[in-house]
From TrEMBL:
It holds the Pfam family PIG-L. It comes from Actinomadura keratinilytica. Keywords: Zinc. It comes from the Bacteria. This is PIG-L family deacetylase. SUPFAM superfamilies: LmbE-like. InterPro entries: GlcNAc_PI_deacetylase-related, LmbE-like_dom_sf.
Amino acid sequence: MANVLDDSAVRRVLAVMAHPDDVDFGAAGTVAGWTARGIAVTYLIVTDGDAGGFDDGMTRAQMGALRRDEQRAAAACVGVDDVRFLGYPDGMLEPTLGLRRDIARVIRQVRPDRVVMPSPERNYERIHPSHPDHRAVGAAALDAVYPDARNPYAFPELLADEGLEAWTVREVWLTGGPAVNHYVDVTDDFDRKLAALKSHASQTAHLGDGLAEELRGWLGANAAAAGLPDGRLAESFQVVDTS
């Protein structure tokens, strides 16, 4: 298991994700626990999710606007009120220098102790978390944490033009990857996680009551892998020391 920072040493967390709802599927229960303990959490969503949904009657611009609103509503369910969007095109992400700079900018603005992001590695046992956008964001965000955000000579315009001083993130939590070394018991915050996911109605309404059942099965398997008692639910992560 990982050597993880105690939450008492964490003041701010930044979650960098590809699409609206990614953070809620991967980490909303954990986020709810953090905000309940007074940790400030910011969401940075790289795309508007305009390539998602099931309504052919909506334009892609309308879908993007809807999904931004859904993400804000979902964030409120778990105590997050700082939600930012970069507006990159959904389904077309690459870990470019421009994306690294945009994420490094927000890291320097928020100055988080911990950053949550998708794993840049493909998970062959569970392929759905390994969407190419997820892996691209994971690669760019990890590079933004190390070395970009901490190096004052990387993207010097962030300091020279925007006054953003270098910042060292102490810890990264990866979601959806092939390696897991840390579990968080989210049983007591399951209802808040479920409410957050239901806020993404354009993506989850068609699942009906099956959404809760699917979540319980997935989170229950995580809890069993963590050695937690029957009936407990857990989210899983790979924690990386980046101090």
